[in-house]
Amino acid sequence: MFIPNLLLLAGTGTKSGKTTIACRIIEQFPWLDISAIKITPHFHDTTTGLIPVIKNKGYSVFQETDSETSKDTSRMLHSGAHSVYLAQVWDDELPKVFREIMELIPENTPVICESPALRNYIEPGVFIIMTAETINKPMNINHLQTLPHLMFKLEDLENIESIPIGFEDGKWVYEV
């Protein structure tokens, strides 16, 4: 399924720069009212600021309301995202849960989502893979390595003035 208003982020492990580039893109387009989603297969205790939106067997979705913590979702909200959601979900429920989250977001809204696993089910308008010199908990995303429109190294982001993407006519586009 092709979702043109979705910019999807994957990384080669934790601390590869997924949230950093998400925040950079949100800051680059403050007029777009971007919605952001972080999807994780890890179920953690929730923290203040996370308001339950959907709870069901095998998954939970929360809306972030606190922009002043160091959590990834809080950082996205602090960067200017209009709304931010956190989904804790096993991969086998991912397509269904993603559709439920998208129903919470107005149609044609620009969406940025952190989820390597989602690329197994959906083709986004733009797909970015992040990597870094130092990776915590490496992830095997070799099967995705031929799919990204863009790849960035975390350490190089500070030298990039503007991420070469845009949002036109309801879809994310990349500038080659």
Could you give the topology of this structure?
Blueprint: E1 2-11, E2 13-14, H1 18-28, E3 35-40, E4 50-56, E5 59-64, H2 72-78, E6 83-89, H3 94-104, E7 111-114, E8 123-131, E9 136-138, E10 150-153, E11 165-168, E12 171-174
Parallel strand pairs: 1-7, 1-8, 3-6, 3-7, 8-10
Antiparallel strand pairs: 2-9, 4-5, 5-6, 11-12
Can you tell me about this structure?
The chain has a single domain, classed as Rossmann fold, CATH 3.40.50. The two termini are 24 Å apart. A hairpin with a 2-residue loop joins strand 11 and strand 12. Strands 4-5-6-3-7-1-8-10 form an 8-stranded mixed beta sheet, sandwiched between helices. The chain has a two-stranded antiparallel ribbon with strand order 2-9. Strands 11-12 form a two-stranded antiparallel ribbon. It has 176 residues and is α/β, with parallel strands linked by helices. Helix 1 runs parallel beside helix 2.
